[in-house]
Glucokinase (Actinomadura luteofluorescens), 262 residues
Amino acid sequence: MAARVLDLVTELLDEAEAGGCAAGAVGVAVPGIVEEAAGRVVLSANLGWRDLDLAALLAERTELPIAIGHDVRAGGLAESVLGAGRHCRDLLFLPIGTGIAGAMILDGRPYAAGGYAGEIGHLRVEPDGRPCRCGGGGCLERYASAAAIAGAYAARAGEPVTAAEVAARVAAGDPVAVAVWGEAVEALAVALGAYATVCAPELVIVGGGLAGSGELLLEPLRAALSARLTFQRVPRIVRAELGDRAGLLGAALLARAGAGAP
């Protein structure tokens, strides 16, 4: 897989140069645990990588400045600079898809903690709850991810569906869908309440596939979170603006910074 990535980067650089727009740096966003400063992928289960010095490999191949980022943090960076959070210094970017992760922007800067920060999908929202692939149980991801919502509906209704179909059935008043959706919203409110207490974000930007449900998700989530908070700052909750381009744009921003551009 690493060889394929190196070949793809080389092809893209050649295409850019042939088009009269030679690249000055390379940015790559990777899922998993990533040490951005070192340019090292600690673990990417989806790609089968462990302790891979990706920046060094790319630098050797391209002879250009290299920036390596985490895919969600890169997306959060893009939303904070170019998207829904561009006028905000403290925010959480929360993409909800097959899983749930978070990109923390604190005082205007992405916070990575060596690649381990932002795993909000593994906050425990239900004591002795559903087992999670992380080895724990009761994790947010097991209640509020798109996969969890679809699975919970299928288990109760006996019918395989997607999360988007569950959302459509919520809008149509399907009682099973409404119950599953409400549980997901409540789980998100529990996790965001904990995050708001510790980090006090001004803004939560919801992205990923589930953000496509729009106010069907955001309106009850705002209400549920507000009801849980007492003295804490209540963050605004909005939909991401950049969609699937967020990670790509974030990688470009990392490359731009790596090349010394402002």
The chain has two domains: 2-73+245-258, 86-240.
